[in-house]
Write a structure and sequence with these properties.
Elements: H1 2-26, H2 40-44, H3 49-61, E1 113-115, E2 122-123, E3 135-137, E4 142-143, E5 151-152, E6 155-157, H4 165-188, E7 194-198, E8 201-208, E9 214-215, H5 240-252, H6 257-260, H7 277-288, E10 294-295, H8 300-311, E11 322-323, E12 328-332, E13 344-349, H9 350-353, E14 357-358, E15 364-366, E16 374-376, H10 390-394, E17 395-397, H11 419-424, H12 431-439, H13 442-452, E18 455-456, E19 464-467, E20 470-473
Antiparallel strand pairs: 1-2, 3-6, 4-5, 7-8, 8-9, 10-18, 11-15, 12-13, 14-15, 16-17, 19-20
Helix pairs in contact: 3-7, 5-7, 8-13
């Protein structure tokens, strides 16, 4: 008995150092970002794309804790409770708030269902969250106990998937470059109305007055700086990096160095350098090299549905595809929204990394089913956010329909549980197309739904599959 006791004790003495190391690295008793953090200097010195994507995947899935800088500093009652850095927390727990952020530990928590049309759902990195992951954004007042509709002056956001986001960003940047060229053209031709059209999408027109002024009163569906911002339901962010900077602070209270400064503890939580420039860079590269959505099962019924989709006007906003001129997405730091080509440190060929189909001009075919433009969707879908005006509450960027079968619930806040519900809730600029759908014979309307059911999220492969060594483009129907 004594010998066994000694043997067990000896074994524990040997194992304890290993167990202690394992506990520190896996149970969160230290910063989960760890000591080997990615710097911008390392990236620019020549990390491989695989190394950057792997590092970005770690950033996407790391559960931030308070050693990393998770959360805000001490609550400050003198500040607006919607401002970052001193937000209140539920019952004073000092960690979670849920209403206005501090609502997750990882990016993965809002992007983990790749296909929710399967039962059980197919799980994976980069998908949606389902109804339980809806984000309650920046309200100062919520009262749902005694009124219908419930009084709420924030926004409810249904998190989208990230698949194909590199193609979205590439096309949007090229559109911005063209619009900035048209802006320069307007200044060179004062008093001449210059149409703002790029990739077949019209954003209105502008007129220069010859004295340095620019009339932007006829600009449509975008901000007056003529930057296409495809990310966020309201079209608020020009790039995925731009979105990630805001998301880090909102969801986690993690302050990016590029926003607050190196070595700065802006929120007073005792931690500085919470998110390094290089860490946001690899997260940006990871997100934008996720595979693009796919088309599956395009039979004759679905082809008839596509024809009806176009004929009744859905495709006017939900444009089946946009073409890029380049196949490579450029990454920049610092980013300049009006000049996407400035400060580029890396480029990624999206036909290789994300599986996009090449078009005849050497760019990529991006079958987004969107025009990347904001539209008035009517009073039924209007939000009640008190920090913007009534018109902005009515406007949403055209939802990208690729992958739509697998991403219920639908619309900006997830109120529609089926595709048919989502269509019927369209109003404003989409009212006519919605009414045309309602007037279709039942079988024709079913064909439209059958077509939308062909738009799938990727599971195992990107937008191409390989059979017997041959490449087969799943989006070739749009390149013919």
């Amino acid at each position: 008995m004594y010998k066994v006791g000694i043997s067990v004790l000896a074994m524990l003495c040997v194992l304890c150092p290993l167990m202690a190391h394992s506990a520190e690295s896996s149970t969160g008793e230290g910063p989960n970002l760890g000591p080997d953090r990615t710097t911008q200097a390392q990236i620019e010195a020549g990390l491989s794309v695989d190394q950057m994507i792997e590092a970005g995947g770690r950033m996407f899935t790391t559960p931030f804790n308070k050693f990393d800088g998770y959360g805000d500093g001490p609550y400050d009652a003198s500040m607006d409770p919607r401002s970052f850095g001193a937000r209140p927390s539920l019952q004073g727990n000092g960690t979670f708030l849920r209403v206005n952020g501090l609502d997750a530990q990882t990016c993965l928590e809002c992007h983990f269902i790749t296909r929710n049309s399967t039962i059980p759902a197919t799980l994976g990195i980069g998908g949606v969250a389902g109804a339980g992951g809806s984000v309650i954004f920046m309200p100062s007042f919520v009262d749902v106990a005694e009124s219908q509709p419930g009084k709420f002056n924030g926004r409810l956001i249904n998190p989208p998937f990230l698949f194909g986001s590199g193609g979205v960003e590439l096309v949007a940047k090229e559109m911005t470059v063209r619009l900035q060229q048209l802006r320069a053209e307007a200044f060179s031709k004062p008093s001449i109305r210059v149409p703002l059209e790029t990739k077949g999408v019209s954003f209105g027109s502008i007129v220069a007055d010859g004295q340095g002024g620019l009339d932007t009163s006829e600009v449509e569906g975008m901000d007056e700086d003529l930057v296409v911002r495809p990310f966020g339901r309201k079209g608020e962010f020009a790039t995925v990096r731009d979105f990630d900077v805001a998301a880090m602070r909102f969801h986690f209270g993690m302050e990016p160095v590029e926003e607050v400064g190196e070595g700065v503890d802006g929120d007073g939580d005792g931690v500085g350098d919470e998110i390094l420039v290089g860490e946001l860079s690899v997260l940006h590269i990871f997100n934008t090299n996720l595979p693009s959505p796919v088309m599956e099962g395009l039979d004759m019924s679905a082809m008839r549905g596509l024809a009806a989709f176009v004929r009744i006007g859905c495709a006017f906003c939900h444009r089946p595809f946009l073409n890029s001129e380049s196949r490579s997405l450029a990454y920049a730091y610092p980013e300049i929204d009006t000049d996407p080509g400035a400060n580029v440190y890396y480029e990624s060929d999206l036909s290789e990394t994300a599986g996009f189909t090449l078009n005849d001009n050497g760019g990529i075919l991006a079958p987004l089913f969107s025009d990347l433009k904001r539209h008035d969707m009517g009073s039924q879908l209007k939000e009640s956010f008190d920090l913007v005006d009534d018109q902005r509450n009515r406007e949403f960027i055209t939802a990208r329909l690729w992958g739509v079968r697998d991403t219920a619930p639908y619309l900006h806040d997830g109120r529609a549980l089926t595709l048919r519900e989502a269509i019927l809730l369209h109003g404003g600029e989409a009212q006519n197309a919605r009414d045309e759908f309602v007037s279709l014979p039942v079988d024709r309307a079913d064909h439209v739904i059958a077509f939308l059911y062909c738009l799938r999220t990727p599971v195992d492969n990107p937008a191409v599959q390989h059979e017997n060594g041959d490449r087969i483009d799943r989006w070739s129907v749009f390149s013919e």
